[in-house]
């Protein structure tokens, strides 16, 4: 992509233009030198470019952005990726602006065409289902962000220290959120989902926020099923004990480590890392310990 290169003096008039810019604007170099943007572009474009140029001159810093311009001569709209940087004399004073612009108009047209083909019916030019889903997704994302901001503000308020008798207390909380939509179920079901999200928030990050998702429900269902199965396992001898010898520095067996294993009739061996915490949280750890001792 050939670049358009130009220099403007402090009056924001062109003092240098390369041939690429001349060709693009449909003017000769003599016609462009001494011109300002008001003579080349429409009023809106000229005003916007002037504001950027003044900022570069005043701040003395490089500026980069995409620019949309409308040519005064033809009315054609073009897109440029432009870098503007101040030029300094030996004393450090800014005496001009150098601009380097790449014409990305064709790229933007291709992107627009791809967008039209993706989101609009080619026959009727009406929005299609994909556009509807895209807009709904954006709206949902914005709604989620709004809800999360409110939740974060609430947690911040709860975290403010308060006085209690002669001391100061700090309260922290974890929050579970569930988004409402038509047909989502009863209030009780929604509260259960919010509880699951809150538990997930506590498990991952104290003082955190979690939105409910179906995986949480699936995990809760699995834990409930395993808890029931573990109760039965204690009663029906599905648990097994393994003795693992412990050796000293001389290689002699000095003790035995007792390992508890659970062989589920359908799922096979269940990892202790899964069923031991389950037993602790469900109150089954004592019956489990008694079984081991017996």
Automatic annotation (TrEMBL):
PAS domain residues: 1-60
Assigned keywords, A-Z: Kinase, Transferase
Residue span(s) of domain EAL: 223-294
Stored SMART domains: GGDEF (SM00267)
Gene Ontology MF term list: kinase activity
Alphabetized PROSITE patterns for the sequence: EAL, PAS
Cited InterPro entries: Biofilm_reg_signaling, EAL_dom, EAL_sf, GGDEF_dom, Nucleotide_cyclase, PAS, PAS-like_dom_sf, PAS_4
Matching Pfam families: EAL (PF00563), GGDEF (PF00990), PAS_4 (PF08448)
Gene3D superfamilies in alphabetical order: 3.30.70.270, EAL domain, PAS domain
NCBIfam families the record matches: sensory_box
Entry protein name: PAS domain S-box-containing protein
Species whose genome carries this gene: Halopseudomonas yangmingensis
């Amino acid at each position: 992509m050939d670049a358009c290169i130009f220099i403007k003096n402090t009056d924001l008039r062109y003092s240098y233009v390369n041939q690429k810019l001349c060709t693009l604007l449909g003017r000769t170099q003599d016609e462009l030198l001494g011109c300002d943007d008001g003579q080349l572009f429409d009023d809106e474009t000229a005003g916007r470019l002037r504001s950027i140029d003044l900022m570069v001159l005043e701040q003395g810093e490089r500026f980069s952005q995409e620019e949309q311009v409308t040519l005064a001569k033809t009315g054609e709209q073009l897109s440029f990726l432009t870098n503007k940087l101040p030029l300094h004399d030996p004393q450090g004073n800014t005496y001009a602006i150098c601009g380097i612009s790449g014409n990305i108009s064709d790229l933007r047209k291709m992107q627009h065409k791809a967008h039209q083909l993706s989101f609009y019916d080619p026959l009727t030019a009406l929005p299609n289902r994909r556009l509807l889903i895209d807009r709904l997704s954006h709206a949902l994302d914005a709604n989620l962000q709004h809800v999360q901001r409110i939740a974060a503000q609430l947690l911040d308020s709860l975290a403010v220290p308060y006085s209690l008798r002669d001391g100061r207390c700090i309260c922290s909380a974890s929050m579970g959120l569930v988004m409402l939509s038509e047909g989502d179920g009863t209030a009780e079901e929604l509260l259960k989902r919010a509880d699951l999200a809150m538990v997930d928030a506590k498990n991952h990050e104290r003082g955190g926020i979690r939105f409910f998702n179906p995986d949480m429900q699936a995990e809760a269902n699995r834990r409930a099923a395993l808890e029931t199965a573990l109760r039965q396992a204690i009663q029906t001898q599905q648990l097994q004990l393994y003795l693992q010898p412990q050796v000293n520095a001389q290689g002699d067996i000095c003790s035995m480590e007792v390992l508890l294993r659970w062989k589920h009739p359908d799922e096979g061996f269940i990892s202790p890392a899964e069923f031991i915490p389950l037993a602790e949280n469900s109150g089954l750890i004592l019956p489990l310990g008694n079984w081991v001792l017996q």
